[in-house]
Write a structure and sequence with these properties.
This protein is an alpha+beta fold and about 190 residues long. The protein has six helices and nine strands; from the N terminus they run ααβαβββαβββαββα. One of its GO terms (cellular component) is plasma membrane.
Length: about 190
């Protein structure tokens, strides 16, 4: 009887339905991949960044995580600055040893080490950021086996074993969020009854 009474008030039922649809919609669209630049080597002169970037697909919403020692910086530059390792017109610069760069719009992004000799030695990275798909999270890139979450917020040390071993970590809404949304919906129903 209470269940019927709950839905006889159409405005309350409509509000509940709207909330459920919003929660489900958000849970299906919250995806991003965090890439640790250079994998275990990190952002370092010893990293083969040209090989690292191959076969990776960067989409809007992904994040580049640069981990590096105090002898390096992460400078975002123009294409011309990238090609000539020019650090005079830097778009943004970071030197904290643990820099996250969100990829917020499509297009090419260019990063170099502020030490020109390091840049000339290959310590530079170009990524092409794609718009991404409006499809379900199943179309999003998947993490490598063994990925468990974000790396600790510490600067890269001289010990490569302290750096996260895989570059792609998947943050997702997916099924976990659906289960939580369903549990919240059921709790709301029980509370209203």
């Amino acid at each position: 009887m209470k269940f019927h009474a709950l839905f006889s008030h159409s405005s309350m039922a409509e509000q509940l339905l709207v909330h459920v649809i919003v929660i489900l919609g958000l849970s299906l669209t919250c995806t991003a991949t965090v890439y640790t630049v250079g994998d275990t080597s990190g952002w370092d002169i010893s990293s083969d960044l040209d090989t690292w970037v191959k076969n990776k697909r960067f989409v809007v919403g992904d994040v580049l995580l640069f981990q590096y020692s105090s002898s390096h910086t992460v400078d975002e530059v123009t294409k011309e600055g990238f090609q000539g390792c020019n650090t005079t017109n830097v778009l943004q610069m970071s030197s904290n040893g643990n820099t996250s760069i969100p990829l917020s719009k499509p297009g090419d992004r260019f990063f170099i080490c502020g030490n020109k000799l390091h840049c000339l030695g290959g310590m530079k990275l170009q990524v092409n950021v794609e718009q991404g798909q409006v499809a379900s999270p199943s179309a999003a890139p998947r993490a490598q086996p063994g990925d468990s979450g974000l790396p600790p917020p510490t600067a890269k040390s001289d010990n490569p074993s302290s750096v996260t071993p895989n570059s792609a970590m998947f943050i997702h809404g997916g099924i976990d969020s659906l289960v939580l949304a369903f549990m919240g919906f059921m709790a709301t129903l029980l509370w209203l009854l």
